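Consortium newsletter contribution from the modelling node. Members have asked for a concrete example of what our holo predictions look like. Here is one, prepared for the calcium ion complex that several groups have been discussing at recent meetings.
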Amino acid sequence: MGVCKKLSLVAISLILFKVLSCSEPLLEVYGNLEEPLFLVSGNLSKQLEMKSEMNFDEAIIAGNDETAVRIRKDAFHKINLIYDENGFHSKADSLPEVCNIKNIAHICFSSPYKEKTLFHLQETSEIARVSPFEYFLADYEKIGESRKNGYRAVKLKKKKQSEIFNLVSDNLILVLEDGQEILVDKSGFYQHFRFEGSFFSWKSLPIAAVWENYPEEGMKDLFTDIRDTKSPLLIILIDSLGWKFLQYLKSNEPELFLSKTDFAPLRAVYPPDTENNLLAFSTGIKSDKSHAELFPQKDFPDQSGLIITDDKMGFSSSFRIIRSNDENADGHADDEIYLTALDNLTHHDFIFVHLHSIDGTGYKFGAYSNERIVQAKEVDKYVESLVANWKGEILLFSDHGMHTEFGKGVHYRADEDDMVAVYCWLKKSDPDKQSSGSTE
Ligand SMILES: [Ca+2]
Ligand SMILES: [Zn+2]
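And here is the predicted structure:
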């Protein structure tokens, strides 16, 4: 029995040894990747084809000796990766000599489609967006270019030290991928900022944006403001009315009520969509969406509140919810929501009205389309009328903005279009405040 056990132990360790020693060496890939990617020895192009969703247009193959080569997609199939005791090498006989890199440190790919971009925002503008590929490339300078058999290769050499983010202010907000905002100073940022190959991190937390001179008010600050408001309050959420679109609206339609209203920029919560921002606005926290409750009773114990929205809004609330549908089938429910709101203005001390159609029209026609301007003119009438008929305080705000991709409006990333929302307080009880709210 003892001998048997010993033998089987030897057998197991032999198998283990074999498995471990045969496990293929892997080369970790950098770049615009959704998920970690590893290469093994063999033809580069064939390996990428097997990862069907990979659509790279360029690559940098960087050696440990600080040289690198930048090649285009058409050359991928001429490159073979070879592994030996010194590591990975590239062998490419039909390409320019510089494509043969000894001891590869990294291969970094660029993709025209998949962006894990880090956005650099200042105030309400985006001053840079950096993809992992661009960040990787920024460490190198071009020292030559060569051709062979119609293939082009750019020879690169590593620079001393490059600083891609030139921060101008001492304090900034880091917008994390998980939606948190972290306030850091400049040195604290540089100390803990890392390039992770396919994304950027601060203290190992993935970051979506670096925001300098950020708008003072964030979505969660608005929550505190509305919770502490004791007078009757009308809130109108104009879905998707971003700061940039508002400026565009002002220049196209300066006479609109929205154009004349003195909005301030507002930091949306990342990712900039309605769910996240509605929760941050109405609860002050990033709630667990499955158990989320808008305007929870513990924060709003005294209000008899009313929420007027469309039939798609999935959250519950201790406030009464009226859902209006597009009964006249004109493509949106904002006209019905407006009429419902108008009917109910006098019966409640807290009303939340959610107008959706600027968002919906943007999805179909693009963020800066003429159709969206036309829809904004329609929404403008509803907002102006509700404001005129309410006695008490009023908060107008948006949940996020929108940008255009392939002709359609979308909002999901930490750029200047999507992340900068708007808000404005109008105090009907205070004539001075009201007039300051409609200048410009
Ligand atoms: Ca309708
Ligand atoms: Zn939307």
